[in-house]
Write the structure tokens for this entry.
Amino acid sequence: MATKRKIPLRKSVVSGEVIDKRDLLRIVRNKEGQVFIDPTGKQNGRGAYIKLDNEEAQMAKKKQVFNRSFSMEVPEAFYDELIAYVDHKVKRRELGLE
């Protein structure tokens, strides 16, 4: 009898949905206070997840969700970088490259 593998689930900080970890993007704040995108999902630091969706990235900027998640002021430029990264990833998925 084959054992069923457990699917890792994480909660999106924007929508509050619990989703498969592979469909989410991890954002990390390390000990030095740097906030960055973690495409591997394995960097050290405090992580927060958002769904790989253009609307979700726009809402993250509008609501400034990472300011609350990381208890610090996240620069506006990071949110712009996040929106561009998510847009790029969504287009790659649509083309079947990922």
About this structure: The first helix runs from residue 54 to 63. The longest strand covers residues 24-29. The chain is about 35% helix and 20% strand. Residues 64 and 87 are 18 Å apart (CA to CA).
